[in-house]
UniProtKB/TrEMBL annotation:
SMART domains: DED. This is NACHT domain-containing protein. Residues 14-92 form the DED domain. GO terms for biological process: regulation of apoptotic process. Residues 175-288 form the NACHT domain. It holds the Pfam family DED. SUPFAM superfamilies: DEATH domain, P-loop containing nucleoside triphosphate hydrolases.
């Protein structure tokens, strides 16, 4: 099996960094197209085991079809799916997406985690064999707004959760969003779908990093909760991760699920994040049981 972590340890190499950046931009359907284009060059048995872009790149390297000085084959594949900007990235030409290697490392690891951990749900706790893909579950959305000094809130159905990020003011972006409702109405499912969509490049492209945090598991500092989403041997420290997020706040989305489930003794700086006392330029989505006073 392809070892993602062994690939991460080599990310400082410019060639590896370019492959990471390319992989993070490819959708699942584009990976399928690339696999189809490789069917005459890669044995069918190997292609069947490929699920992620980096796994495909690894197979191409083993077959001597890809290397630091030989990107022609992959370049042609990228051009064939109309991703010439990724072809430029592969060859280090201007116009490629020149994101730094730290961001790519964080992104690829978070996306891999969300695809594996959030993509499938077990609705019946007593039946482990019965699972549903998150895309098979639909949650109706309704935006409820209350004007100051008014006891009658207005209601507006939403076509998509993306409308949550739209504000009537052109100058101010929505930074703090509360999703509340009765238990079982689908709050957690909705925000899980957000994280999954970001991981599969379907939505939320305006955010470079998405941290999906279940508040019932928070033990104190929000930085620790962020770091807990990453592997134990992740090649940067918790402090380095937090400093990086501090420097890129506007690109960060925090999804905090289950405000009512957090233990009072373990609140830590969660309230500071919600209120904007820390990381105020980041965007925060909070789910809660009915209304948070």
């Amino acid at each position: 099996n392809y070892d993602l972590l062994s690939f991460l340890r080599q990310v400082m190499n410019s060639y590896r960094s370019r492959l990471f950046r390319i992989a993070s931009e490819l959708t699942e359907s584009e990976v399928s197209d690339l696999k189809f284009a490789c069917k005459e060059h890669v044995p069918a048995g190997l292609l069947e085991r490929v699920c992620r872009p980096l796994e495909l790149f690894d197979q191409l390297e083993k077959l001597n079809l890809l290397g630091p000085d030989d990107g022609g084959f992959l370049g042609d594949l990228l051009a064939g799916i109309n991703r010439r900007e990724l072809q430029d990235e592969l060859f280090g030409r201007e116009g490629g997406n020149a994101r730094d290697s730290t961001l790519v490392l964080i992104q690829e690891t978070l996306k891999d985690h969300y695809k594996n951990e959030i993509g499938w749900l077990q609705p019946l706790t007593w039946n482990e064999s019965f699972r549903l893909h998150i895309k098979q579950i639909y949650t109706n959305l309704e935006l409820i707004t209350t004007k100051q000094h008014s006891s009658s809130p207005s209601r507006k159905p939403l076509n998509s959760y993306e409308e949550l990020f739209v504000t009537s003011s052109r100058q101010n972006k929505t930074k703090r969003i509360l999703i509340e409702g009765k238990a079982g109405v689908g709050k957690s499912t909705l925000v899980s779908e957000m994280a999954y969509d970001w991981a599969t490049n379907e939505n939320l492209a305006q955010f470079s990093m998405v941290f999906f945090i279940e508040l019932k598991h928070v033990l104190g500092r929000i930085s620790d909760a962020m770091f807990d989403l990453l592997p134990k041997d992740f090649p940067i420290t918790c402090e380095q991760l937090y400093k990086y997020v501090q420097g890129h706040q506007e690109q960060v989305l925090f999804i905090l699920d289950g405000y009512d489930e957090i233990k009072p003794s373990r609140v830590g700086d969660v309230h500071d994040l919600i209120s904007g006392k820390i990381l105020r330029q980041s965007t925060v989505i909070l789910t809660a049981f009915w209304r948070v006073e």
